[in-house]
Design brief:
The protein is of the alpha+beta class. Helix content is 62%, strand content 15%. The strands form 2 sheets. The chain has a 5-stranded antiparallel β-sheet. A two-stranded antiparallel ribbon has the order 4-5. The protein starts with a helix and ends in a 9-residue tail after the last helix.
């Protein structure tokens, strides 16, 4: 399992700081600054008007000059207001653009961190499987915990017969894994096509001809059907089929692309162990037969 552990260790979760909250507070501060500038301009305008009225009432200036003073004060306040508004629009647009870019970057980093955390957790569960069938069940259940998967099927590739054998299912209707393909005959040729071409297929709204997602409320058509080959180092190990009532998204595709090599390495190790165990049993049986068979002209030990 060393290769599988190394693959899982290379995908540690990225630390995501609480920068989104700070960016939100900065955006609110910028908005509050704009309102404060507007209130300041209004206050200066009212102050200039009040000062002009007081000066005119007290006859501190020659007749008629108070109006000109009030007009000049209003013009200066208006000019200052326009200058502040222009400055706010120019700087605010650049700051808001930078904030939007930073928020998008944080959302991407957060999604990447969650995806890598799911990858590490799923890799750990795969490494604990004791048989190929259990490994397939761990894969489907782990993907269902991390993605909006409502139905899944895992098939292993038989190189000798050039066929697929269903070994595990998730949320599919049928007595066992093989019955899933019997109840949904249009799905089997599609799985075989993906296995032979070794290219994934994604179908949006495939319709009831391929499969139906069964639940307690009845059957429903999937919104997206994803079929992905399981291969590693040029060898095909099987095919993974996932169906969802909503689009899986780009993150799901990345997670599947990264987990399938880990799954293939774990499956290769388990299959090698099973072949070694079978060979050992055959050797023991042959040795027991040889010891009990007296052979021509001899007797049993």
């Amino acid at each position: 399992m060393e290769d599988a552990r190394a693959a899982a260790a290379s995908t540690r979760p990225l630390p995501v700081v609480g920068g989104a909250l700070r960016l939100h507070e900065l955006r609110r501060s910028l908005s509050r600054l704009g309102w404060r500038l507007a209130l300041l301009n209004l206050s200066l305008l009212l102050l200039a008007a009040a000062a002009g009225s007081v000066v005119e009432a007290m006859d501190l200036l020659p007749p008629g000059s108070a109006g000109w003073l009030l007009l000049c004060s209003a013009a200066m306040v208006l000019f200052f207001s326009l200058l502040c508004l222009l400055l706010r629009l120019t700087v605010g647009r650049e700051v808001l653009a930078a904030l939007s870019a930073a928020e998008a970057s944080l959302r991407h980093a957060d999604a990447e961190s969650r995806r890598r955390a799911c990858l590490v957790e799923l890799s750990s569960h795969l490494q604990q499987a004791q048989s190929p069938a259990e490994l397939a069940r761990q894969l489907l259940s782990g993907l269902a915990r991390s993605l909006p998967v409502h139905q899944g099927l895992c098939c292993y590739w038989d190189e000798g017969s050039q066929s697929l054998n269903a070994v595990a299912r998730y949320g599919a209707d049928g007595a066992d894994e093989a019955q899933v393909l019997v109840r949904q005959p249009e799905l089997a040729p599609l799985l075989l096509e993906v296995a032979r071409s070794r290219r994934s297929i994604t179908l949006a709204n495939p319709g009831p001809g391929y499969l139906l997602i069964s639940s307690g409320l009845g059957d429903a058509e999937p919104a997206e059907l994803l079929i992905h080959p399981i291969e590693h180092l040029g060898r095909l190990f099987g095919v993974l089929e996932l169906a969802s009532l909503q689009p899986l998204g780009e993150a799901a595709g990345l997670l599947i692309q990264e987990i399938t090599p880990v799954f293939a390495m774990c499956l290769d190790i388990l299959q090698r162990a099973e072949r070694s165990e079978t060979l050992l049993k055959q050797t023991r049986v042959a040795e027991a037969v040889r010891q009990t068979d007296p052979g021509p002209g001899g007797r049993a030990a």
